[in-house]
Amino acid sequence: MIMSRIPAAPGEAQGNLTDRLLAGLPAEAVLTDPDVTASYAHDMASFCPAGSPAVVVLPRTVEQVQHVLRTATALRVPVVAQGARTGLSGGANATDGCIVLSLTRMDRILEISPVDRIAVVEPGVVNADLARAVGEHGLSYPPDPSSWETCTIGGNIGTASGGLCCVKYGVTAEYVLGLDVVLADGRLMSTGRRTAKGVAGYDLTRLFVGSEGSLGVVVRAVLGLRPKPPRRLVLAAEFASAAAACDAVCRIMAGGHVPSLLELMDRTTVRAVNDLARMGLPESTEALLLAAFDTADPAADLAALGALCEAAGAGQVVPADDAAESELLLEARRLSLPALEAVRGTTMIDDVCVPRSRLGDLIEGVERIAGKYRLTIGVVAHAGDGNTHPTVCFDAADPDESRRARESFDEIMALGLELGGTITGEHGVGVLKKEWLAREIGPVGVEMQRAVKQVFDPLGILNPGKLF
Amino acid sequence: MIMSRIPAAPGEAQGNLTDRLLAGLPAEAVLTDPDVTASYAHDMASFCPAGSPAVVVLPRTVEQVQHVLRTATALRVPVVAQGARTGLSGGANATDGCIVLSLTRMDRILEISPVDRIAVVEPGVVNADLARAVGEHGLSYPPDPSSWETCTIGGNIGTASGGLCCVKYGVTAEYVLGLDVVLADGRLMSTGRRTAKGVAGYDLTRLFVGSEGSLGVVVRAVLGLRPKPPRRLVLAAEFASAAAACDAVCRIMAGGHVPSLLELMDRTTVRAVNDLARMGLPESTEALLLAAFDTADPAADLAALGALCEAAGAGQVVPADDAAESELLLEARRLSLPALEAVRGTTMIDDVCVPRSRLGDLIEGVERIAGKYRLTIGVVAHAGDGNTHPTVCFDAADPDESRRARESFDEIMALGLELGGTITGEHGVGVLKKEWLAREIGPVGVEMQRAVKQVFDPLGILNPGKLF
Fold it and tell me: Order of strands, edge to edge, in the sheet holding A55-57?
């Protein structure tokens, strides 16, 4: 990585910005080489529009972040906060002339308390690093987005991210107890608590969770932890139709079961995984359900769940005998997105969440939409939550195919809303779903959300152009 | 209850208000008899200041609530929303000349879905009625404030209330998925979702939870449910010191146990219960710990927990053999507040929550404060959450004792903050802890909270004088 004290853009404004940033940051924390700054332009939604940052800053302290925000306010320069840029909605994409504020170097775990079951962390801590660190104390930090080996806690908080274990353990928001936030004008505000409970005043902590860097910059978080559960055991069940698999999901949830994972892969996804990895999944499979328990007696719980799958018409039901077999079964699920990406080179990943009783209707609808637009759309779903990822496969070099991809992507969101769902279960709005947020929450909702934004960011410098 | 179309106060303003309310409400829903309206003046914190309502309205529909708010906005009349008025901080106390908006008649359970694990309810539904109704579908609604047989879901949402089972199942906030809210100007806004997950825009749902009627009026809530757990089994452990009991709590939590209840009663409380109910608790008890599990094998879990209590120095450890014995053990806990109330006629109940590692320090400090102010202060605590209710017993007819009671009450909050805790774990701020909210969240926090209030209530008509 090339570091430079010399601003790349020779203009006076750029020079002024860089000089003022350098007054409170070490030279190695201020990047202006355009080749370097361009690499910070976007997250994983590479097809979303992204501007060119004027500068990238990599602070290590709260005071440095405050300096960046004070400078941005003084010069009216937009600030785009970033973690590991593994987001899928363009929420961390740069805007032209912005300061990219990368929090990745603020990566210290400040405290882990087994008695209080909390961790205090900086925003740049990688999710998996935290999970491992608390694991050494017999604790777990449950939220586990697919990108957990690289994504940061700050990014998780910004996007209110989910993961595979939400069906039992809930989402990121449920684990954020308190925050230190640098406001747009550089002032530091603490929200929330480090206690198990607390209701002093409005819940501003939750307001920041999922706010995509548009209300302030999280510089410290108090996170709730849980005792480490027993090792999970996985079962795979194969169905001759997606409808039967969705019926099984409904039976499992109505039956009062609490699996720690309940995932669905549709036919398209199963075939894509076979093509990529030759995993030997039966090509006749129309839907594959993966379930896990991390209870005291997972084998017994899996047996009961397997019986419900059979009652719903499952062909094969394969419970794993041990942890190694369990991980093997999950490998197919992990390969789903790379496999679908391999189909046409690029994917656009929907994140529609519907009441789980409508899961079957959504999957059926996606199949219809795929036909209508002559596209491959694979569905992987956190089925237990009704949270689906219909993944539109397209060739980004083909304008007509790209247009059809976007139209089908939108039509899936419309279907989700029609079924009583939301346009985003865990990926956030970013730039990808801006128009759709308004459709979901309505004009009064948008008006109030904009007014809240105005309270925290009166100059509109925090991640402008995202959410609405 | 006396109903009247005729305004009690003969003034023109009062007449105008009542007439305009009657334009959109049936006569039986508009109460103006001063003897009747006075009975709506305050919640259970009877010693907190309360004004005289101009009128009490009891709407049955969303449209009627909208009419009330439109009228209030047009005439600039304050609106105080109320549920069952079981709150303990004066949050539902009337202000002079206000409209008391009682939501108790909007008490329909609109939907219960075992597959989606949600209930959709109106705000006036009584907590226990909901618990029983969902129980018939094999589901549970966990939040269980002590007043659950009378308190309403709307009140629970307004105060973000807790209960006995929070240590395992969390608080009200974690079960509120979506809301319909009537804004100050009468417009209707929907927030959140009816799906298991959802991150579309800012989390306004959580902003309303615990906002004490100061941002809008909840008229419908989508609540998350859980499968009904197995029947719980309870254990009682008796300690020769509060410090030893707190040590046991720390060992239990650090040991990765997840009891569904973990309560503590100090010596003062144990004696008060003995005095009230002759339960025959040993008078030598310095602290009593009650624990429960609702797991598949609660006896085994209780045995492990009992061993930790013994390691921490417990004298007697008494596990219940069955549900009946369990309920008997919990009876002492349920009688704690009535018993402490009987000591001097009135109580002021603190709600300090500290990191559970500091629980022992808090209880020791409360004992010191009781001595300093020559008062009886009993501590009952949701020990597993570090959420304590130091209960100051005083004679409200004695001005000096009342003054000392208030001073000791405040000193306990100061101690809670000093120990890294919060002034309120589950009862809210109301009027009782207004000055203390500012001390806890600091000037920047107060400024931002006030600004958020301004967004939703620009005229300041919603429950004025509460929170800050």
Answer: A30-31, A55-57, A99-102, A79-82
How does pLDDT run across A164-206, given as a tens digit for each residue? 999 999 999 999 999 999 999 999 999 999 999 999 999 999 9
Question: Into which CATH architecture does domain B233-418 fall?
Answer: 3-Layer(aba) Sandwich (3.40)
At B146, is the secondary structure helix, strand, or coil?
A: coil
Give a three-class secondary structure readout of A187-224.
Answer: CEEEEECCCCCCCCCCCHHHHHCCCCCCCCEEEEEEEE
**Chain A residue with minimum CA distance to B213:** A202
Is B196 an interface residue toward A (CB < 8 Å)? yes
Planar angle of CA A190, A194, A196, nearest 5 degrees: 135
More confident: B329 or B212: B212
Q: In this structure, what token pair is assigned to residue A245? A: 């698999």
Sign of the Cα pseudo-torsion (B348, B353, B359, B361, in order): negative
**Half-sphere exposure at residue B373, Cβ-oriented, CA atoms within 13 angstroms:** 24
Report CA Rg, chain B.
23
pLDDT digit string, tens, across residues B241-264: 999 999 999 999 999 999 999 999
Nearest residue to A465 (alpha-carbon basis) of A440, A442, A433: A433
- What would the two tokens of residue B453 be? 């209030």
Interface confidence (ipTM) of the complex: 0.95
Interface test with A, best of B88, B156, B197 (most A CBs within 10 A): B197
- B199 touching chain A per CB within 8 A: yes
CB A203 within 8 A of CB B204: no
In angstroms, the CA A192 to CA B171 distance is 15
Number of residue pairs across A and B with CB atoms under 8 Å?
269
Could you tell me the CA-to-CA distances from B317 to A289, B246, B309 in Å, in that order?
Answer: 46, 15, 8
Does the distance separating the beta carbons of B138 and A441 come in below 8 Å?
A: no
Torsion of CA B226, B229, B234, B240, to 10 degrees: -40
Domain boundaries defined on chain B: 12-102, 109-227, 233-418
CATH code: domain A109-227 is 3.30.465.10
Q: Is B44 helix (H, G, I), strand (E, B) or coil?
A: coil
Q: What are the tokens at A318?
A: 């394969």
Q: Which fold has domain A12-102?
A: 3.30.43
Q: Which residues 283-312 on chain B approach chain A with CB closer than 8 angstroms?
A: 295-297
Give A 403-462 residues with CB within 8 A of chain B: 420-429, 433, 437, 440-442, 444-445, 448-449, 451-456
